């Protein structure tokens, strides 16, 4: 089965990840939060929604600075 809609992540620990979906979400989430848990402190990254003609939409790492 071929998926015609792609969601791409740009920056941070999810950089380069592409999720394929059969169709676009009617209302995509404006922000995705990624929480990285390991032996040290919790690390939180926020990705904001941007539309991209070639991918459908992409989430870009929020510049916290």
What does this structure look like?
With 65 residues, this protein is mainly beta. It has one domain (5-61). The chain contains no helices and five strands. It has strands spanning 5-10, 18-21, 31-36, 43-52, 56-61. Strands 2-1-5-4-3 form a five-stranded mixed β-sheet, with no helix packed on it. Strand 3 and strand 4 form a beta hairpin. The N and C termini lie far apart (41 Å). Residues 11-31 are annotated as: Disordered.
Shape: elongated
Number of strands: 5
The share of residues in helices is under 10%
Main pleated-sheet profile = 5 strands, mixed
What is the mean pLDDT?
85
User: Distance between the terminal alpha carbons, to the nearest Å?
Assistant: 41 Å
Order of helices and strands: EEEEE
Strand order across the largest sheet: 2-1-5-4-3
Name the structural class: mainly beta
Strand percentage: over 45%
Count of DSSP H/I helices: 0
How many domains, in number, for the residues? 1
| Poorly predicted parts | none
Gyration radius, to the nearest Å? 13 Å
Which labels suit this protein?
65 residues, mainly beta, 5 strands, 49% strand
What is this entry, summarized?
The chain has strands at residues 5-10, 18-21, 31-36, 43-52, 56-61. The protein is mostly beta strands and 65 residues long.
